[in-house]
Design a protein that fits this description.
The protein has 296 residues and is an alpha/beta fold. It folds into two domains: 2-162, Rossmann fold (3-Layer(aba) Sandwich), CATH 3.40.50; 168-291, N-(1-d-carboxylethyl)-l-norvaline Dehydrogenase, domain 2, CATH 1.10.1040. The protein has twelve helices and nine strands. Helix 2 (33-41) links the parallel strand 2 and strand 3. Helix 8 crosses helix 11 (240-256). The longest helix is centred in the middle third of the chain and has 30 residues, at 165-194. It is globular and about 65 Å long. It binds nicotinamide-adenine-dinucleotide (NAD).
Length: 296
């Protein structure tokens, strides 16, 4: 099976590497020369456009920043849907709005091309280790075909429903994550200001009803969770600007169905402020700085 992988950045580069390690032939394309070079060093075949990569492929995987890039790669001037043969499979693992992938799917289906959304959870650590969770939106036969490929890059491949359902699951998960991280930051900052040792406080939370992923695995206070970005200056994690993008997707989707997401709207503004202050690239757990004095 030949695979085309478009978008070889922090996530895509590591995911493509796992496909290569599984012995698959992977044709890749990225706008970044550095990303292409790393991919070539891992044994991938670098192509000079998405179409050139897709021409060789039975399966196309895309891992791109946002909806406009996904539209460009599938439907643009050098878009892959122009090139793919009938029966080919497209898997978009980017985090985007459900409507965009549903619109692309309509065009793909008219060309007898299978397509699914398969956004991921697990971050760059999961991408590297091949332990990602994929949330798949597709009909049953497309899901089964995608599962065979995604199994090389993840340990959970969950069928969420029809095209777009994977993105709905991803957006709702990250809405909860953005809020829960802010709640833990608020609680930790208050506790320390009131005089408790942060380790003692985290120890209580993590054996009590406040416990969650943000308190336990990725605590925003430094040196509570040793492997967390907070313990390495908030570097190399899930960037605040990506969390802001995902909260924007949740707010937009909620607006479309007139569903209130009160806390989501509030934390979106907090992450917006973080980005405005030049911290867009820091891990989103750096939201705790909204609760600390300037010099902290
Ligand atoms: P990234 O910016 O590191 O990588 C995206 C890559 O796409 C870049 O290398 C860029 O050059 C390339 N690109 C952009 N437009 C292109 C085009 N037209 N053709 C070819 N390549 C193009 O981003 P990332 O961290 O890898 O994230 C990718 C997606 O995964 C995003 O939607 C993000 O929200 C989602 N995601 C990221 C994480 C994480 O921890 N980083 C976790 C879960 C989901």
């Amino acid at each position: 099976m030949n695979i085309a992988f478009i978008g070889l950045g922090n996530m895509g580069g590591r995911m493509a590497h796992n496909l290569l390690k599984a012995g698959l032939t992977v044709y890749g394309y990225d706008l970044s020369e550095v990303a292409n070079q790393h991919f070539a060093e891992a044994g991938g075949v670098v192509c000079d456009s998405p179409q050139a990569a897709a021409k060789q492929a039975d399966v196309v995987i895309t891992m791109l920043p946002a909806a406009k890039h996904v539209k460009e790669v599938y439907l643009g001037e050098h878009g892959v849907l122009e090139t793919l043969k009938a029966g080919a499979l497209c898997i978009d693992s980017s985090t985007i709005d459900p409507k965009t992938i549903q619109d692309i799917a309509e065009i793909a289906h008219s060309k007898n091309i299978k397509i699914c959304d398969a956004p991921v959870s697990g971050g760059t650590i999961g991408a590297q280790a091949g332990t990602l969770t994929f949330m798949v939106g597709a009909d049953e036969s497309t899901y089964q075909a995608a599962k065979a490929v995604l199994g090389h890059m993840g340990k959970n491949v969950i069928h969420c429903g029809d095209v777009g359902a994977g993105q709905i699951a991803k957006i709702c998960n990250n809405l909860i994550l953005g809020i829960s991280m802010t709640a833990v930051a608020e609680g930790m900052a208050l506790g320390v200001k009131l005089g408790i040792d942060p380790k003692a406080l985290a120890g209580v939370i993590n054996t009590s009803s406040g416990r969650c992923w943000s308190s336990d695995v990725c605590n925003p206070w430094p040196h509570i969770s040793e492997n967390a970005p907070a313990s390495r200056g908030y570097q190399d994690g899930f960037a605040t600007q990506l969390m802001l993008k995902d909260l924007g997707l949740a707010v937009e989707a909620a607006g479309q169905v007139k569903q209130p997401i009160l806390l989501g709207g509030m934390v979106q503004q907090l992450y917006q402020q973080m980005c405005m202050r030049g911290n867009a690239h820091l891990d989103f757990s750096s939201i705790i700085h909204q609760y600390l004095p300037e010099e902290a």
